[in-house]
Amino acid sequence: MGHRKKSAPRHGSLAYLPRGRAKRTIGRIRFWPKVEEGPTMLGFMGYKAGMTHIIMIEDKPGSQNLGKEVSHPATILDVPPIIVFAIRTYIRNQNGLQTFTEAWMKHPPKDFDRALVLPEKFNIEESLKKIEDGLDKIAEVRLLVATQPRLAGVPKKKPDIMEIKVDGGSIKEQIEYSKSLLGKNVSVTDVFKEGRFVDVVAITKGKGFQGPVKRWGIKILPRKSRKTKRGVAAIGPWKPPRVLYTVPRAGQMGYHQRTEYNKRILKIGIDGKKVTPKGGFLNYGPVKGTYVIVDGSLPGPVKRLVRLRHPARPPKKVPESSPNITYISLESMQR
């Protein structure tokens, strides 16, 4: 038999090319799902504190371990209340969504000038009247919200500003709901419930400029290889006379935006001491107030802002009740 040329599956996914750095540390949500109940906010955010493991009674329908105690890795999010500081309405035209008008709260908190230039004079009554008069034109209602880092364990004061869509019910109901929240604190319990699934949007841990072995997982060439060992031996044919984008090359690795679908909220609590391990979370410290335990891992390092969103494609088999957690590990993470 003649010699058969060796072949192997390609290394690394081409799904997220180009692998460039994210523009901002805050994840950008490009799609908001429709919801039946409401009106309600479709998202929330918190700071990643760290991971632990929990033991719970398995309640996934069809699971072989149904009714038994199982151990799960879990991530703790520090979720202090957010401030709704403005209502923004949109109209739809041939170019898509276009801002119609905004209504701001009267006295924004002291840290807001760290993040943006506040309007000197803002007539909230006039803006709300304009929204009421344009009800038939308005296509979407969104809330401008800000985090309160002073209430979390992150070492900063500047709030993170973002936009969250309001959905469910009619446009008039959404505007009344938004007016009731304007200038107030909103807790995660007002948006999500235990046992529900959420989508998670965050920027992954940055790893800088890396070679193709670490970045793409290609094989290290034999010791006797000429020129290079931690690289691709043949980077392509003569024609086309260029290196194809599918060839694994060195470059930026990490610090990319990623969305993970259908992460389950295992528990929401108001006393962070109940989930803070002995000595605090590594590189974070103690969780002071409201927290969320999410099943599994989340993108990004500790202290990074993580955005939660109502699921875009929720699973069909969903446990009916909130999970029964029998144990949360609080063992020290100091080695």
From TrEMBL:
PROSITE patterns: RIBOSOMAL_L3. InterPro entries: L3_arc_euk, Ribosomal_L3_dom_3_arc_sf, Ribosomal_uL3, Ribosomal_uL3_arc, Ribosomal_uL3_CS, Transl_B-barrel_sf. GO terms for molecular function: rRNA binding; structural constituent of ribosome. Pfam families: Ribosomal_L3 (PF00297). One of its GO terms (biological process) is translation. The keyword Nucleotide-binding does not apply. One of the primary rRNA binding proteins, it binds directly near the 3'-end of the 23S rRNA, where it nucleates assembly of the 50S subunit. This is Large ribosomal subunit protein uL3. It comes from uncultured miscellaneous Crenarchaeota group.
